[in-house]
Specification:
The complex is a heterodimer of chains A (291) and B (502). Chain A has 291 residues and is α/β, with parallel strands linked by helices. Chain A has one domain: Aldehyde Dehydrogenase, Chain A, domain 1, CATH 3.40.605. In chain A, the strands form 3 sheets. Chain A has a 5-stranded parallel beta sheet with strand order 8-7-6-9-10, with helices on both faces. Chain A has a 3-stranded mixed beta sheet with strand order 1-3-2. In chain A, helix 9 links the parallel strand 9 and strand 10. By secondary structure, chain B is α/β, with parallel strands linked by helices. Chain B is globular and about 65 Å long. The chains are: A alpha/beta (291), B alpha/beta (502). The interface between A and B is large, with 40 and 52 residues. Strand 11 of chain A pairs parallel with strand 18 of chain B.
Chain lengths: 291, 502
């Protein structure tokens, strides 16, 4: 007798826990090949979004207040946990996208390496982006980057895992809290990624992951007053305009990049400290200097 | 006696005389010899493609002296066709300007800086006449800083590839920049906008504010004098419609705006479905936090320069004073005393501390807020007894006590010489109150304790934090806000970012 699979229902990841969507809705995750259903996944609602933003907002000051060394170690721990789930992610990517196992392994490895890279940036990026300013007067004057606050990351469809990690890691290492809106097309890797965060000492609320229908959530993200910046990739012009129109209401920062599927593997472009810069605010501090 | 550099610098901003007077001193105003010396034409046209050009709109409007309500002269109102001509000139000039050997580009900018310095007196007089600010401020702050901005940025022209290490060896200009500036620091804002744009190889169309167009037009004369290539900078005067046409023009690749948060949001929406870049330097309601362990005399001078500098027409004005509970009485006493000695009146008088309010409209806005403050139950302290000139727009420096954080005068930007005084008990409460605003432009903190000052500075949501000082500016120091005070920086290394494609 053949054994019946245990079909897993993936839940949202909000405030360090895995709740079901308050809306009670779920979506099927179709396999790339055949009629098979890989899993079921929550169709997150606006209310879930709001809960995630609230959690992020509460967690952010404490995350930013940790030492950069501590943030670095936690992000390195994420890389360690992802390494431990290397095969699981490669399989999940293969079944969702239909890519070869060699290709999905390559993507997982690049994702692990990206986390290692940004773990390392946590206590260095400020040295790259900040500076001392020689003002014409008896003052000590310097500029330091500070985290913008709550960042919503709208993931590209491909590469599903590497895209998520590449957009998550830069704002996170700088002390921002992040709400990730998973790719609608390939949401499984994002759902599994919640388990990486949950087992890596990432404080509750620093990373939150919502799966669901992007079109339902987009305008709401754009309009939310407690979201301070939005990071998205490969967005069509209409969606980009939707984001920016709503963002204008509370002067959110919006970063929409274009990047081909291959370009996510380009270390120079994706691991530069300038990927962090859109999610920090430059603070300039003056103090008189005299005896 | 305190001889620190800080108090010396403060005294150049705010005249420290009459410390011993207990009653307001009724001095005769000195004659202002600067008054006669400057020639202003009856009518100015638009500066397009290196020439003063009559507007196709055929419209002109008057600019007045807010201290006398008299018309100074007429300036052109740029219509859509004029904006198109200006953008076309900037577009045509851009490739050549960008290709120019960087050090040659720099030399034009050094020339501009030098000519601003040489014509400083004239520029200061025009600035104070057109805008109402005290001559001491235009002479000692606005004009020298404008020159410094050109000088500082000139030096960047041939060093841009070192500015953002690892972000590309050869940063490229963005293209034509549309720049819209406010009326509070007319020449200085023009310099803040034009200098970084030119250094990065861009060309500009600049629209000065409706009520203060004259120094920008004088800057256009300087650009002619230094033989800046035609079209590299175009200066078009006009109102909101001229600004709208500029923002909407397809060939404008970057918008830089300084002004109100309301207009800034509107502009952000206007470019939402385009590829235009935008930077916004918007309003503020900046907290100035005084701890009881601060040097109180210096702090009071800092409060004065924080809120009454330029009649409070300053986006980063320290308009919310937060005083630690034990020090409230002494701070209010000293503030009251100090306010009595501030001289309100003729902007061209070197002894004037508070000049004219920039426009009738702004004066009525300020009055509306004074009324709102009183209606909500705060106590208005109008302790300055200076007689006001009969003509012109004037507002005596004043402050409110008994202010609740929910009061309109504690939440909204007044843009006038009006201070809201509140108290706090703990550093946590100070931070909570300071950050409880949608704005995040600037903040001040006063304490003699080093560890406290760093912790407070770190946790304030503000783009500029002045510790034991206030309202200091420099071309090398980035300026700009957090939250709804805008995004992007102006000045310093970080200020170049918005004008380059990396």
């Amino acid at each position: 007798m053949t054994r019946l699979n245990v079909l897993k229902t993936y839940k949202l990841y909000i405030n360090g826990a895995f709740p079901r969507t308050e809306s009670g809705r779920s979506m099927k995750v179709p396999a790339a090949k055949g009629a098979e259903v890989l899993a079921h996944i929550c169709q997150g609602s606006r209310k879930d979004m709001r809960n995630a933003v609230e959690a992020a907002r509460a967690a952010q000051p404490k995350w930013a207040g940790r030492t950069a060394y501590n943030r670095a170690q936690i992000m390195y721990r994420m890389a360690e946990m992802l390494e431990g789930k290397r095969d699981e992610f490669a399989e999940a990517l293969k079944h969702s996208t239909g890519n070869t196992i060699a290709a999905t392994r390559k993507e997982v490895d690049a994702s692990i390496d990206r986390l290692v890279c940004f773990a390392g940036w946590a206590d260095k990026y400020a040295q790259m982006l900040g500076c001392n300013n020689a003002v014409a007067g008896p003052y000590y004057n310097f500029t330091v980057p500070e985290p913008t606050g709550v960042i919503v990351v709208v993931c590209p469809d491909e590469p599903a895992l590497l895209g998520l990690v590449s957009l998550l890691a830069p704002p996170m290492c700088a002390g921002n809290a992040v709400v990730v809106i998973a790719s609608e097309k390939y949401s499984l890797p994002a759902a599994v990624f919640g388990e990486v965060c949950a087992t890596s000492d990432v404080p509750a609320g620093v990373v939150n992951i919502i799966t669901g229908k992007r079109a339902e959530l987009l305008e709401h993200i754009a309009n939310h007053r407690n979201v301070h910046a939005i990071s998205a990739a490969n967005m069509n012009k209409r969606d980009r305009a939707t984001l920016r129109m709503g963002a204008a209401e509370n002067v959110k920062r919006v970063s929409v990049i274009k990047r081909s599927a291959d370009a996510w593997f380009d270390v120079d472009a994706c691991e530069s400290p300038w990927t962090i810069e859109p999610f920090v605010e430059m603070k300039t501090i003056w103090h008189p200097s005299a005896t | 006696m305190d001889t620190s550099a800080e108090s010396r610098t403060q005294s150049t901003l705010i005249n420290g005389e009459a410390e011993s007077a207990s009653e307001p001193v009724q001095w005769e105003y000195s004659p202002a010899p600067e008054r006669a010396a400057v020639e202003i034409a009856d009518r100015y046209d638009l500066f397009i493609n290196g020439k003063f050009t009559a507007p196709k709109s055929r419209k002109h409007f008057a600019t007045i002296n807010p201290a006398t309500e008299q018309v100074i002269c007429e300036v052109a109102e740029a219509g859509k066709a004029d904006v198109t001509a200006a953008v076309a000139a900037a577009k045509a000039a851009q490739p050549k300007w960008a290709r120019l050997k960087p050090q040659e580009r720099a030399k034009y900018m050094y020339r501009i800086a030098r000519r601003i310095q040489e014509r400083a007196r004239e520029l200061a007089i025009i600035e104070s006449t057109d805008g109402g600010k005290p001559i001491r401020e235009s002479r000692d702050v606005d004009v020298p800083l404008a020159a410094q901005h050109f000088f500082y940025h000139a030096g960047w022209c041939d060093k841009l590839r070192y500015a953002f290490p690892g972000a590309g060896r050869d940063p490229k200009p963005v293209g034509v920049c549309g720049q819209i500036i406010p009326w509070n620091f007319p020449l200085l804002m023009a310099a803040w906008k034009i200098a970084p744009a030119l250094a990065c190889g861009n060309t500009c169309v600049l629209k000065p504010a409706e009520t203060t167009p004259l120094t920008a037009l004088r800057l256009a004369e300087i650009l002619e004098e230094v033989e800046l290539p035609a079209g590299v900078v175009n200066i078009i005067t006009g109102g909101p419609e001229s600004g709208r046409a500029l923002v909407e023009h397809n060939d404008v690749k970057k918008i830089a705006f300084t002004g109100s948060t309301e207009v800034g949001k509107l502009l952000a929406k206007m470019v939402a479905d385009t590829d235009k870049r935008i930077t916004l330097e918007l309003g503020g309601k900046s907290p100035n936090i005084i701890f009881a362990d601060a040097s109180i005399d210096q702090a009071v001078e800092g409060i004065i320069s924080g809120i009454y500098f330029n009649q409070g027409h300053v986006c980063c004005a320290g308009s919310r004073l937060l005083v630690e509970e034990g020090a409230v009485d002494i701070v209010v006493d000293k503030l009251t005393h100090r306010l009595q000695s501030l001289r309100v009146g003729d902007p061209l008088d070197k002894n004037t501390d508070i000049g004219a309010i920039n426009s009738k409209a702004q004066l009525s806005t300020i009055h509306k807020y004074l009324e709102a403050g009183r209606n909500e139950g705060a106590a208005l302290h109008e302790v300055n007894g200076q007689p006001l000139p009969r003509k012109g727009y004037w507002c005596r420096p004043c402050f409110f006590t008994g202010v609740q954080p929910s009061h309109v005068v504690a939440r909204e930007e007044i843009f006038g010489p009006v201070l809201a005084v509140m108290s706090f008990r703990t550093p946590e409460e100070a931070l909570e109150r300071a950050n409880n605003t949608p704005y995040g432009l600037a903040a001040g903190v006063w304490t003699d304790k080093g560890s406290k000052i760093f912790e407070i500075a770190r946790r304030l949501d503000a783009g500029v934090v002045w510790c034991n000082t206030y309202n200091k500016f420099d071309a090398a120091s980035p300026f700009g806000g957090f939250k709804e005070s805008g995004f992007g920086r102006e000045g310093g290394l970080q200020g170049l970012r918005a004008y380059l494609e990396l």
